[in-house]
Amino acid sequence: MTKNNMKLISFFNNHKSILLYLVFGFLTTLISIFTFWLFSSAFQINELLSNILSWLIAVAFAFFTNRKWVFESRGQGFLLSALKFYLARVLTLLIEEGIIFIFITILYFNGLAVKTVAQVIIIVLNYIFSKIFVFKK
C-alpha cells in the first residue's frame, strides 16, 4: 500500500461520520428536491404540501442511512432513536417551510432554487441535531 493510500484511509477513518453524512445528506437532498419537483410540477400540488410529502420520503431514507452507516447507532432502541430523529427533523421542517413560504409563496422566487438553498441550511442543522441529540454516544 502506498503512502498516499494510507493517508487517504487514515483521513477517511478520522472523518468517517462527517464524510458519510455528506454522501447520504447529498443523496437525501437529491431525493428531497426530486420528489418536491415531482409533487409540485408534475402533479401540480401546492408547494407547501409538496415540501411536506418530499420531506416524509427524504427523512425516512435519512433515518435508515444515518442510523446504520453514519452514526452506527446500536445503543438505544430503534423506536426511541426514530422518535428523536423525527422530532429533530420536524424542527428543521418548520424552518424549511418558513423559508419556502417567504421566498416562494410571498416573494415568488424560483421554487427549485429556494428549495436547493434551503437544503444546505437544513443539512447543517440536521447533522448538528443528529450528533448531539439523536445518535449521541
Descriptive key words:
137 residues, mainly alpha, globular
Q: What is the gist of this entry?
A:
By secondary structure, the protein is mainly alpha-helical. It is built from five helices and no strands.
**What's the story with the biggest beta sheet?**
none
| Secondary structural class | mainly alpha
The end-to-end span amounts to 33 Å
Average of per-residue pLDDT values: 90
Shape call = globular
Q: Please state the CA-atom Rg, rounded to the nearest Å.
A: 17 Å
Can you walk me through this structure?
The chain has helices at 3-14, 16-42, 47-70, 78-106, 111-134. The chain is mostly helical. α2 runs antiparallel to α5 (111-134), α3 (47-70) packs antiparallel against α4 (78-106) and α4 runs antiparallel to α5 (111-134). The protein is globular, with a radius of gyration of 17 Å. The mean pLDDT is 90.
Q: What's the structural blueprint in terms of helices and strands?
A:
Layout: H1 3-14, H2 16-42, H3 47-70, H4 78-106, H5 111-134
Helix pairs in contact: 2-3, 2-5, 3-4, 4-5
